[in-house]
Amino acid sequence: MLLAAPRGYCAGVDRAVITVEKALELYGPPVYVRKEIVHNKHVVVTLEKRGAIFVDETDEVPEGARVIFSAHGVSPAVHEEARVLNLRTIDATCPLVTKVHREAVRFADDDYDILLVGHEGHEEVEGTTGEAPEHITLVESPADVEKVQVRDPAKVVWLSQTTLSVDETMETVRRLREKFPLLQDPPSDDICYATQNRQVAVKKMAAECDLMIVVGSQNSSNSKRLVEVALEYGTREGHLVDYADEIDAAWLDGVTTVGVTSGASVPEVLVRDVLDWLAERGFEDVQAVTAAEESIIFSLPSELRRDLKAAGHDTKVRYDPGSVPAALH
After folding, report:
1. From residue 220, how far is each of 67, 137, 242, 329 by CA, in Å?
2. Closest CA to 210 of 143, 255, 168, 176
3. DSSP state, residue 253
């Protein structure tokens, strides 16, 4: 068995999940959360059991209540809705997503046409687009480039959803640059380091794996991309599962090497369950495939940090980007 490192929780997800946990501890339930705090079924169910109430829209939160915005970010219109309802907000948007929002605002202020590479309907895309809707055009894939129109080919910039496939995004950007030679890059690559590192680990493993198991939920963009990357780089078969009991034993027929990784919103306990399931079926030799060392930690949202300090609570954020469990070395 080849086990990817890093895998699982990224710093932004860790921060968002801890935000809900600490809000429940500090304020007591219920604490409302707009959309899923992160795209993982297990995380959402676990937090619901502790008193978190997940809603789809801001107007579902009772007036004056406390609401947390998810890691994927929200548009200015959502912040305004919360203000009108006198909601007490905690913004758990990943700082890397916030960076993209700020870039969108800055380029819109300079009257650029902004080509946003991303998937329609994804919460992150909706939030970023909401920052400057009259300036942003969504480009979902290289095939969409042909129909893109801009006002001034000399004032065009691309931005990206943070959780996409690195390869597909850069192919879309390459096509865009063929059409708009003066296309400007963002100040830094918007695809987040965690998405990229997890994909690089899978690329290193893929050709050696007969089967790749990615732990993650179907609505997790970065988890689905890991399966696609594995297949593109040589894995014979790949599957996305939320839990170990979703693995079909028939997938192991003729398999000598299994790759295991997890999306950036997946707690490590779910990966351990998959490792145990595979070990029971003879895959006991575990080798780590390390693509990068991650040490970034984001501080908690300022609103929560302030209240935690006032109450004498710990404001630290834990973070372990995945390693080989000691018992499996």
Report:
1. 22, 23, 11, 29
2. 255
3. T
284 is catalytic: no
Query: Is the pTM here over 0.90, yes or no?
Result: yes
Kindly provide the b/e burial profile for residues 269-292, where b requires at least 16 CB atoms within 10 angstroms of the residue's own CB. Answer: ebbeebbebbeeeebeebeebbbe
Q: Both tokens of residue 151? A: 């006002």
- Positive or negative CA dihedral for 264, 233, 295, 243? positive
Active-site hit among 36, 103, 123, 124: 124
Cβ neighbours of residue 70 closer than 8 Å, sequence gap 6 or more: 16, 33, 34, 35, 36, 37, 38, 92, 93, 123
Encode pLDDT of 109-124 as tens digits. 999 999 999 999 999 9
pLDDT tens-place string over residues 248-297: 999 999 999 999 999 999 999 999 999 999 999 999 999 999 999 999 99
Instruction: Indicate the burial class of 81 (C-beta count within 10 angstroms; 0-12, 13-18, 19 or more).
Output: middle
3-state secondary structure of 215: strand
Residue 40 and residue 266: Cα distance in Å, rounded? 6
- CA dihedral (287, 289, 292, 293) in degrees, to 10, reads -10
Write down the residue that tokens 């000598």 correspond to.
256
Q: Could you write out the DSSP letters of every residue in 27-48?
A: H-S-EEEES-SSS-HHHHHHHH
Render pLDDT for 14-46 as a digit per residue (tens, 0 to 9).
Answer: 999 999 999 999 999 999 999 999 999 999 999
Residue 323 has a pLDDT of: 46
